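Question (not urgent): is this output format expected?
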Amino acid sequence: MRADARRNYEMILAAAEAEIALSGADASLEKIARDAGVGSATLHRHFPTRQALLEAVFHDRVEVLCAKARELATAADHGQALVEWLRDLAVYGATTRGLAESLLHTSASSECEVMLRDAGGELMRLAHQADAVRGGVGIDDLLTLVTAVSLATGNADDAARLATLALEGIRPVGEKPSPSR
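Got this back:
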């Protein structure tokens, strides 16, 4: 990529991060272009769709969540590891304006969605092997659940509390819930 194109890309991404933090996933693309000091055509050349821009804005944050999942995969209690990761995802979604909205409206083939599904899927597989999750519960169900909690709350404390409350229902019948944070 040419130096000027790279500079435009970085300015658009910085402006998008700031505007999405203020306005969420429906932030004005025109305002983002203006704030970046580029025209609308330049924005669309780098990011042909709103979803492509959202993916770029949230990619690094999603990668942090995926790294946390890889770390938790080595935990002794796979059920608790899954719940902890999903709680972190709910908190992250609630406090990172626009993330939960963009995940809710994304196609199954978006990069961030695939990254989260793969990371959570491995934790889910380990939890199922340890009989720490009810049969029939899938990672897509849990991602939808924590996304809904994120959208409903908007702050870390409520997201953590409600995600913990909801996630205790995935444990097999008769198993005692783990203490919440």
